[in-house]
Amino acid sequence: MQSGNSAQQQNRRTSDKIEKHIESHNESVEKAVADSEQKDLVSELFKDKEKLLILLLIMILSQESTNTELVLALLYIII
Hints:
Blueprint: H1 2-47, H2 49-63, H3 68-78
């Protein structure tokens, strides 16, 4: 009887280790996917120089106390 309990405990420990490994792997995959999507966004920004310049202008104007209509108009141009 004791050997049966010991085997069950060993199986539970092994199962727990496998579950932790799977969770860790899933988190790594999700992080890699998020990183690649972020890199794609940045690379797309640098491909279109005009949009990049407008975004930089928006950033500069938003730090200054400027007309919000101008900033919104520039955002509309990017879309």
